[in-house]
Amino acid sequence: MEKENVPQDKSNLTKNNVKELLYATDENGEYTTTLSTGWEPKTIALSNSIDEINERIADAKQQVLDGEASPIIYFMELNKMDLNILSSYVGLWKWRIKRHFKPSVFAKLNDKTLKKYADTFTISVEELKNSITK
């Protein structure tokens, strides 16, 4: 893309006066860097991704409120983690974490295990246990 054709569309980046560094060709055909305030297709894709993340968080919260899942699933979504990432951070097998998604199993977890989750989510054990139900 030529430097003068780099898109300067309004985007989520312009809210904070942030510009994105891109590579483009100059008038001599040489690669150079230039700044862009945004590109509409990228803005749409980013907005759709954020909407999907927010829906997943809301669904997880509702599952917890309905007693179908433990708070771990909500905080995992809130922190934009998946099972693999959470497993590596907490240091537990994925199958164990899946068991901890069950409210009945979660209720029996010891403080040491709860602390691992709380530290991973950067919250207290008390917040992990009670913050969603309030």
Uncertain runs are: none
What kind of oligomer do you see? single chain
Query: How many whole angstroms does the radius of gyration measure?
Result: 21 Å
CATH superfamily of the largest domain: lambda repressor-like DNA-binding domains
- How far the N terminus sits from the C terminus, by CA atoms, comes to 52 Å
Quote the average pLDDT: 88
**What order do the strands of the largest sheet run in, or round the barrel if closed?**
1-2
> Helix/strand-derived class?
mainly alpha
In the CATH hierarchy, the third-tier topology of the largest domain is known as 434 Repressor (Amino-terminal Domain)
The biggest sheet, with number of strands, parallel, antiparallel or mixed sense and barrel status, is: 2 strands, antiparallel
Can you tell me the number of structural domains?
2
Given this structure, which CATH class of the largest domain is correct?
A: Mainly Alpha
Order of helices and strands: EEHHHHHHH
What is the approximate shape?
elongated
- Strand tally is 2
Query: Any guess at the CATH architecture of the largest domain?
Result: Orthogonal Bundle
